[in-house]
Design goal:
The chain is an alpha/beta fold and 362 residues long. Strand 5, helix 9 (146-159) and strand 6 (164-170) form a beta-alpha-beta unit. 40% of the residues lie in helices and 17% in strands. Strands 2-1-7-8-9 form a 5-stranded parallel sheet. It folds into 2 domains: 1-313, 3-Layer(aba) Sandwich (Rossmann fold); 317-360, no CATH class.
Length: 362
C-alpha cells in the first residue's frame, strides 16, 4: 500500500469515525475552525461533516489569501494595471476578484497587459525580456507563498533587473488567529492549523493559543485519514481539558519549519499592520518590503491614492471568512453570485468557502 492509499484506506477511515463517535461527549458542542483554504475544500470533498457527530461544528475561517485581500488593495492593483507601459502579472485566481467597479479579467479584455504566471520568478523573466516597460507582480498569500516573492526580489536584484516591482499584499497567520481566539461571538474550542503555512513557520508559532487562550491546536494534513485523526486529537484535548499544540502532519511539518525560507522572508520583508476582509486592520499581521529593497516596491514607484471603499453590502464574504455566517446565508449565493460570475472573493478562489459550498454542498 502506497502513502496515498494508506491515508484513504476505508478500514482505517471506518475505525477513526467509530472512535470519534465513541469519544465525543453528546452533552456538549465542539467548535473547531480550519484556517486553510485547502482544508476547507478537502473537508467538503471527502464529506467529513457528514460522518462526524452533529455536535462537532467545523467552521471555515480566513484561510484563503485571495479572499481576505480587501477591496482597497484590489482597487490599487486595478489602477496600476491601467498605467501605460505597465505589464501586470498575477496568479489566475486574482483575475476575477472584484474591486469596487471592475476586476483584472475585464481590464485585460479592454487591452490592459495583464498576464497570468505560475511563479513570481516568471514575472522577473518577463521584466528581463521587456526592459523598456515596468512589470508589477501582485503578491498575495500567507507564509506559504511569501518566500517565493521574496526570492523573486533577490533574483531581480542579483540580475540587475530594475523594472520589476511587487505590489505586496502578503499576510501572516498568527495575529489573525489571535483575533479569532479572542472572539466572544465564535467561542471556538480549537483550531485545525494550516499545514502549508506550518511547513514554513513550524508548529511553535501556535504555542500562544493554548497557553494564553486555552485553545486546542492540531496541525493536520489534507487526506481523509489526516482530517479524521486531527478531529479526534482535538476532541481528546477538549475532553482531557489539556489544550496544546499537536502535529498530526509530522511527515511534512516540524517544530521549527523551513529555516531557509524564513531567512529569505526576513531578509526582504518587515511586519506592518494589515487589513483583512471581515477582520479589519490587525496589528503587525502583514508584510511590507524593507528599506534595503524598497526600490522594488510598486507603491513607492506608483504612489496611487485610493479612496477608502466599502465592500459590497449585499455580499457576506467578510462574515463567511470569520465563521459568523455560512455561504447559504448570503442572498447572492447561487443566484447572482456563481464561480462564472462571482460577486465576492470567496466565490472566486478555488480555496474560497463559497466556491467549496457551490461545488460540493448539495
Amino acid at each position: 500500500m502506497n502513502l496515498m492509499e494508506q491515508f484513504r484506506d476505508p478500514v482505517l477511515i471506518e475505525g477513526l469515525i467509530a472512535e470519534i463517535r465513541r469519544e465525543t461527549d453528546p452533552k456538549r458542542k465542539y467548535k473547531f475552525m480550519e484556517v486553510c483554504g485547502t482544508h476547507t475544500m478537502s473537508i467538503f470533498r471527502y464529506g467529513i461533516r457528514s460522518v462526524i457527530p452533529e455536535n462537532i461544528v467545523l467552521l471555515s475561517g480566513p484561510g484563503c489569501p485571495v479572499c481576505v485581500t480587501p477591496v482597497d488593495f484590489i482597487n490599487t492593483a486595478l489602477e496600476m494595471a491601467k498605467i501605460k507601459d505597465v505589464i501586470t502579472t498575477t496568479f489566475g485566481d486574482m483575475l476575477k476578484v472584484p474591486g469596487t467597479d471592475d476586476n483584472l479579467y475585464n481590464l485585460r479584455s479592454l487591452g490592459c497587459d495583464i498576464r497570468t504566471v505560475y511563479s513570481p520568478s516568471d514575472a522577473v523573466r518577463i521584466a528581463g525580456k521587456n526592459l523598456s516597460r515596468n512589470v508589477i507582480f501582485i503578491a498575495v498569500g500567507f507564509e506559504t507563498t511569501t518566500p517565493t516573492t521574496a526570492a523573486s526580489i533577490l533574483l531581480a536584484h542579483k540580475s540587475g533587473i530594475k523594472n520589476f516591482f511587487i505590489l505586496c499584499g502578503h499576510k501572516t497567520m498568527p495575529n489573525a488567529m489571535t483575533a479569532l481566539a479572542q472572539s466572544g461571538e465564535l467561542k471556538l474550542d480549537g483550531f485545525i492549523c494550516p499545514p502549508h503555512v506550518s511547513a514554513i513557520t513550524g508548529t511553535r508559532i501556535y504555542n500562544f493559543l493554548p497557553e494564553k487562550y486555552g485553545k486546542a491546536c492540531v496541525v493536520g494534513g489534507f487526506e481523509p485519514v489526516d482530517l479524521l485523526q486531527t478531529i479526534l486529537m482535538l476532541i481528546r484535548q477538549i475532553n482531557e481539558r489539556n489544550a496544546s499544540v499537536q502535529n498530526q502532519y509530522s511527515r511534512v511539518v516540524t517544530q521549527d519549519g523551513n529555516l531557509k525560507a524564513r531567512q529569505i522572508i526576513d531578509s526582504v520583508y518587515e511586519a506592518c499592520d494589515s487589513e483583512w476582509r471581515g477582520l479589519g486592520v490587525i496589528s503587525t499581521s502583514g508584510l511590507k518590503i524593507n528599506k534595503n529593497y524598497q526600490g522594488y516596491d510598486a507603491v513607492e514607484k506608483y504612489p496611487i491614492k485610493i479612496e477608502k471603499c466599502s465592500e459590497n453590502p449585499a455580499c457576506l464574504c467578510g462574515d463567511v471568512l470569520t465563521g459568523r455566517k455560512i455561504p447559504t446565508d448570503c442572498p447572492l449565493f447561487r443566484k447572482s453570485c456563481t464561480p462564472q460570475y462571482p460577486k465576492g472573493a470567496c466565490m472566486v478562489s478555488s480555496e474560497g468557502t463559497c466556491a467549496a459550498y457551490f461545488k460540493y454542498k448539495k
